[in-house]
Amino acid sequence: MAQKGTIRTTAGRGRRFDSVLDTIGDTPVIRINNLGPDHVRLYVKAEAFNPAASVKDRLAVNIIEAAEREGTLKPGQTVVEATSGNTGIGLAMVCAQKGYPLVVTMAESFSVERRRLMRILGARVVLTPRAQKAVGMYKKAVELAEKHGWFLARQFETAANADIHETTTAREIIGDFKGERLDYVVTGYGTGGTVTGIGRVLRKERPETKIILSEPANAALVGSGQAQERGADGSPATGHPAWNAHPIQGWTPDFIPAVLQESIDKGFYDDLIPVAGPEAIAAARDLASKEGIFTGISGGATFATMLKVAETAAEGSVLLAMLPDTGERYLTTPLFEGIAEDMNEEETALSLSTPNHRMP
After folding, report:
1. Is the pLDDT of residue 140 over 90?
2. Over 90: is that where the pLDDT of 146 sits?
3. Whole-number Å distance between alpha carbons of 103 and 310
4. For residue 196, how many other CB atoms are within 10 A of its CB?
5. pLDDT value at position 1?
6. For the chain, what percentages of helix, strand and coil (3-state, to nearest 5) are there?
7. Pairing of strands 210-216, 184-187
8. 92-116 pLDDT, tens per residue?
9. Secondary structure of 146-205 as H, E, C letters
């Protein structure tokens, strides 16, 4: 952290990138200075620094490039995927750069800005009924792939998902904390790729580091202990009975993904801590207003969970929370509820305190 009075300078990275895809990964770990208890050190890994502003850029590029290597994705073939938004945005960026048409299926309940972001990146977005939840948008993608001969990305089942977190996200964490304490890593799950990829590495190389998994308190699928019904290919056969609607977009669809199942089966997490939607929103707002770190509701949920762990952590403990994306994905969600567009009384009074350039 720069000392007060120090003039910041930059000198360039000493490299140039051949495409936007080469800028994915190597996201910063940032210390939290104004929030949390004094007896621990808190850090966040800010995945909004990826080029399409979320952790899902990692799996998007790996799904496409793994399919290219394996020959399952043909030149010019249309890609189709079901997504709550971030994977679709990441895939839209990748497909735009590589020249693949993209069709995204998405439940109408997810934020409008996500649809617009995918469309400006060249994707077509097919909405599915809110009542059919994530399983509905998933099955629509399968139908479209089968009917039109498109490549189905299968983020919830593909090995390419957790593999990229094993080879990039986990390696970055190992490198950033080399020779230093790292007592806890906290993450939620959407597909489960982050926790599974990190778990594969930390269990071997940093076994002292505890991995904390979180999920919405009112949609505690893993915490319920109820198994997910699956098809032969690992896809969800039905929605999970423990699921309820929650505001943490990008987290916890209405089924337990096959990618996450590996973490459950192999014990890649040490504790499972639920978090309520209002806690997640409050934490995201605190990160923005007190740390200048702008993250979405999912990032707020992870940070709120880390604060719970921090309260009882041993003196000197070091904790890291994953922040999956940027708050700009949530402009039409409860995260911005009550955030006014027009001036409030205090702002109006400031405007009137000088004679010129006032709003009428």
Report:
1. yes
2. yes
3. 42
4. 26
5. 65
6. 40, 15, 45
7. parallel
8. 999 999 999 999 999 998 889 999 9
9. HHHCCEECCCCCCHHHHHHHHHHHHHHHHHHCCCCCCCEEEECCCCCHHHHHHHHHHHHH
Question: What size, in residues, is the chain?
Answer: 360
What are the structure tokens assigned to 160, written together?
């390419």
Q: Phi then psi for 210, rounded to 5 degrees?
A: -85, 135
Cα distance between residue 78 and residue 199, in whole Å: 33
DSSP state of 230: B
Interatomic CA distance for residues 329 and 327, integer angstroms: 5
CATH numbers and ranges of domains, the chain = 20-50+162-336 (3.40.50.1100), 56-152 (3.40.50.1100)
| Residue in 45, 56, 133, 210 annotated catalytic | 56
The DSSP element (H or E) to which 323 belongs, if any, is strand 318-323
Residue 351: active-site member: no
Structure confidence by residue, pLDDT tens digits, 219-276:
999 999 999 999 999 999 999 999 999 999 989 999 999 999 999 999 999 999 999 9
Annotation says 204 is catalytic: no
- At residue 4, does pLDDT exceed 90? no
Using a 10 angstrom Cβ sphere, with 0-12 exposed, 13-18 middle and 19 or more buried, the burial of residue 131 is exposed
Asked if 323 contacts 56 with a C-beta cutoff of 8 angstroms, the reply is: no
When pLDDT is averaged across residues 180-196 and rounded to a whole number, the result is: 98
**What does the alpha-carbon distance between residue 319 and residue 103 come to, in Å, rounded to a whole number?**
38
Specify the higher pLDDT residue, 15 or 93.
93
Tell me the whole-structure pTM to 2 decimals.
0.94
With 90 as the cut, is the pLDDT of residue 84 above it?
A: no
The sheet with strand 210-216 has its strands ordered as 29-32, 41-46, 318-323, 184-187, 210-216, 271-275
Bridge partner residues of 30 (DSSP): 44
| Helices assigned H by DSSP within the chain | 56-70, 86-98, 112-120, 133-148, 159-164, 170-176, 193-205, 221-224, 258-266, 277-286, 297-312, 345-352
Q: Is the pLDDT of residue 324 over 90?
A: yes
Cβ neighbours of residue 176 under 8 Å, at least 6 residues apart? 29
